[in-house]
Amino acid sequence: MTSPSEKYAAWAEEKRRENSELTAFTARYDFALDDFQLAGGRALEDGRSVLVAAPTGAGKTVVGEFAVHLALAQGRKVFYTAPIKALSNQKFGELADWLGAERVGLLTGDTSIRPTAEVVVMTTEVLRNMLYADSDLLDGLGFVVMDEVHYLADRLRGPVWEEVIIHLDRSVQLVALSATVSNAEEFGAWLQEVRGETSIVVSETRPVPLWQHVIVGEELLDLFVDADGEAVVSHGPGARSDRQVNPEIERITSFSLPVDERSGGQRGRGYRGRKGTRGRHRPRGAGRHGSPRGERGGDRRGEHEGPRHHGPGSGRDGSRHDGGRHGGSRGGAGGRPLRRPDVVELLDDAALLPAIMFIFSRAGCEGAVQQCARARLRLTDDHERGEIRAVLDERLAEIGVEDEEVLGLHAFRRAVLDGYAAHHAGMLPLLKTVVEELFARGLLKVVFATETLALGINMPARSVVLEKLVKFNGVEHADLTPGEYTQLTGRAGRRGIDTEGHAVIVGGPRFDAPAAASLASRRTYPLRSAFRPTPNMAVNLLDRFDHSRARETLETSFAQFQADRSVVGLARRARELEDTVEDYRAAVTCERGDLLEYAEVQEAISAREKELSQARAAADRDRTRSVFGDLRRGEIIALPGGKRRGYAVVLDVDRHVLGGPQVDLLDTEGRRRSLRPGDVPSPPAVIDTLRLPRPEALGSGKVRKDTASALRQRLAGQDDDARREVRRRAGRTPSTAAQDPRLQELRTHLAEHPCAACPDLESHLRWVGRWRKSRGELEGVQRRISGRTSSLARRFDCLTDLLLELGYLEHAGEDGEELVPTTSGMRLRRLFSDRDLLIAECLEHGAWDGLDAPGLAAVVSAAVHETRRDDRAPELIPDPAVGAALEASSRIAAELQSAEARHGIDPTLPPDPAIAAIVHRWARGAHLAAALEGNDLPPGDFVRHCRQVIDLLDQLTADERLGRTARAAIDGVRRGLVAQEIGR
């Protein structure tokens, strides 16, 4: 029985909650908050920081908004941070609508609106810079909301999150909002350590049920069913554990189709070329038969009347079909995946629009729009088209006529009016904003997007379609991880808009249903820190703290926290390997002699052969550069391989381009190509000459085609394999292995060794191989253990040694053991860039002095750009001062890399002038089409790059020598579409 005192305590707690700020805050909603939202709010009201980890669309931001409410109620300021500007702008608008515009400010680096307001929305970098500068805006700060905090795993920008968390005053309550991560408790434990008392609130339940489907051939099938063959929810309300992979998928994909049925012919449902679809007028949340799925009571069929599992032998209409000689449904395991327009129409017939189809390339997204246009797909009615047209006319009015073609506005308008569009980073931000607005209003039915759309932007979709389960990760094509799958499909079915969400996988040849089911079932998303000390961070820390305190600050990072925890498992693995190495060592014996000595001689031979091979390759590279420099216009060359192979004629040779001579070629198919020494493994061979038309005439496709025809005629009788022709005429640098004294001595020693005559030598060497492999693995684990213990602090020490050598730090104090920034270091302290030290070195050596405003903008472009592709040499800028500045910057970068190598620090990337000429033209006043002429740089990339250029130029305005020019350069770059995008 409850005692009177316990009853009184419960009554008092209930009264306290009734009069709490949380109760007042919840009154603004017409629905009850979830338990995890209430738990996060109570933690804040009790004075604790809080980590809230919940699925996408679950309502995490409610806790962040309560922090805003609580701060205002307590008379304190609150900062709301987001990882990208689009999210900051979106949240700024939402808070201004709620609180009134006069109470909300916005700071995004290039936009400053009411920075002294009670509530300020900002990007995380802005807050980091405030902390390092001890800004007055931090006075009175009570709360900081960090939205999408799992972004700290981002390799480039993630460390900023940790810097903010570490340096925020302990009196500030932190609200960290994260997607569901599998190590939320670990992250929360770190927050507890660095921020003080912190509550960890984790919710793994989706607020909206999620169904999983697969498109196989022309069938839209449920991925999960129960024992009775009925569809099962995978996540969210109604999810069941008694689910299995739909056996119908395996049955259909097990058939192969005749070639004529796979590659042509009429599709069974008459999709091709249709202009209208049956599902487009259904409301959000409606099923195949028009009834909202959430209103059907307890009947399982009624709750899920959309895509259905059909028993063996039955079609979508319930009729029987013969799975005999034709192997069942078209487009099975042996056929191609359904075309994108057909996928869209299939989804529309099943009432699964609006949908986001994730295609993991920009070109793929644009290609999908073009395919839908060619198929004359139309998903909108006349009323919707009228609304869309009004939005387009208003939003796109600011774009000049001269830029419409380069932006592809005609095709964009046509597609959007028909109800579909692309969304990727290469698009103009204005166009992406229009897509987001129209999709949120339900006017766009399908968006073909890259995975960048998965980050937080509010674009509610009923369905998410994954065209493939692999994507290029920058190194290789790799399978999607469960975390990536969760992030992408988390956008399907948004709370308050849809009653359910749908994830759809487009199955192609060799579709692996069990693997897809495993991916869709697991929701692991581990958070891994990307934190690392940088030169800018080092001088900022040493400007605020002594050396010992600065090292301790780095050791409080989440990266070090994770590294120290992982050492326990590594130590256990090391002990296991030590036993294995000892066992293999005991087995390495030979009666004839010392087997390990024999193996060491073998290793020495391999090492020497590798040295000679590398020297030969270096000689090949030197010869290649020399041959490229000697080529003349009209010479026909045979190429040995690499990126370019076959025969071609030389059109032009640019001997002054950065990175070596660049040769412009015309191949036998009439295609123009550019070639640099690094593109071929050895020198090309000159085999003939050809009379060429005038250079300006080669701009004509017909002239190029005729020239290619003449080239083929000239090559008649030549070896079809150009590589054999190269070997006959040029060949590689001769190998010196046969004449190398050291190599011959080692081979003689090996042949005369006693073990060489052992009949069991091959068996003995297998044991040596096992011992060597285990020993190498043990040494690797030991290095990892050594490297992880205080790894960041040791890296910081290497960095400070470099900064001492370069003059950015100096010894101070009575004993001279403290480190403080010099005047140069204070300049570095204000530079926030991935190439911060290189930029500081260029300023220190005056490499950018004397440039005019367009020239400085171009050089700054090279300092912030990183080429996505390496198949094109940078365009020359017709200004000798700019060329000299770029050459000086490259020379300084090479010297800096040498210094970094001496101190064991990862090298800074050299300046990349790939699009500096475009920025130069733009800064001189050219309109967008003229600036981009002759280049394939997407307009969205150009605008985003201009923002980066402006950001660095703004940092240079404080420089005594460059300040005035930097301000003029900002004016030159921040104009037209760039200014409009920055200002929105």
From TrEMBL:
The keyword GTP-binding does not apply. Residues 240-251, 292-308 have a biased composition (Basic and acidic residues). SMART domains: DEXDc (SM00487), DSHCT (SM01142), HELICc (SM00490). InterPro entries: DEAD/DEAH_box_helicase_dom (IPR011545), Helicase_ATP-bd (IPR014001), Helicase_C-like (IPR001650), P-loop_NTPase (IPR027417), RNA-DNA_Helicase (IPR050699), SH3_HelY (IPR058621), Ski2/MTR4_C (IPR012961). GO terms for biological process: nuclear-transcribed mRNA catabolic process, 3'-5' exonucleolytic nonsense-mediated decay. One of its GO terms (molecular function) is ATP binding. GO terms for cellular component: Ski complex. Gene3D superfamilies: 1.10.3380.30, P-loop containing nucleotide triphosphate hydrolases. It holds the Pfam family SH3_HelY. Residues 235-339, 693-741 are annotated as: Disordered. Residues 41-199 form the Helicase ATP-binding domain. It comes from the Bacteria. The keyword Transport does not apply. This is RNA helicase. It comes from Brachybacterium paraconglomeratum. The lineage of its organism: Bacteria, Bacillati, Actinomycetota, Actinomycetes, Micrococcales.
